[in-house]
Design brief:
The chain is α+β, with helices and mostly antiparallel strands. The chain has one domain (4-161): 3-Layer(aba) Sandwich (Aminopeptidase), CATH 3.40.630.30. It has helices at 13-22, 32-41, 70-78, 99-110, 129-138; strands at 4-7, 44-50, 53-61, 83-90, 117-125, 141-148, 153-161.
């Protein structure tokens, strides 16, 4: 399957939100206005399509935006500069084609040469073992963990040196 990776368009928002909701709890559920906020504020918000059908999206942030995520704020407090992967979602029909790797590579390529790390988090509770294996293979290492959502979730905070 050949994928086209391109910038998000506002007309994609309903489809993107639907894909996001289909992979909860691997990512948090969010309302459409928050997804539109990402489209306006994110340093990187790209989608992958195949045959004009949404296959995946990735949202990447840089430090310095007013984002209330505990995980994003943790990285802001501990690192001067980074590329933060807030969320990625791959549709079931597009899995096992290396699409997550393609999106991660594309995000990494947009970071300035002086950005030394990419960051993200993966759920430990509820466990997301497939995601943890992917991130370890991609070169991420756990640097900390924290509880979120009133203790209902625990995440591994991961860093990849570029």
């Amino acid at each position: 399957m050949k994928f086209i990776i391109r910038d998000v368009c506002t007309q994609n928002m309903d489809e993107i939100l639907s894909l996001n909701e289909s992979v909860v709890p691997a990512v948090n559920s969010i309302p459409i206005d928050k997804m539109q906020w990402f489209a306006e504020q994110a340093a990187y918000f790209r989608v992958a399509t195949a045959h004009d059908r949404l296959a995946a999206f990735l949202i990447g942030l840089r430090p310095g935006i007013a984002y209330d995520s505990l995980n994003y704020r943790w990285f802001c407090e501990h690192y001067a500069d980074f590329g933060y992967i807030d969320r990625i979602a791959v549709a079931s029909h597009a899995r096992r084609h290396g699409l997550a790797t393609q999106l991660y590579d594309d995000f990494q390529a947009t970071l300035k040469d002086d950005v030394g790390i990419m960051t993200c988090e993966v759920n430990l509770q509820p466990p997301n073992e497939g995601s943890m294996r992917f991130h370890e293979r991609y070169g991420f290492a756990q640097v900390a963990s924290q509880s979120t959502e009133g203790g209902e979730k625990e995440v591994a905070l991961l860093v990849k040196t570029l």
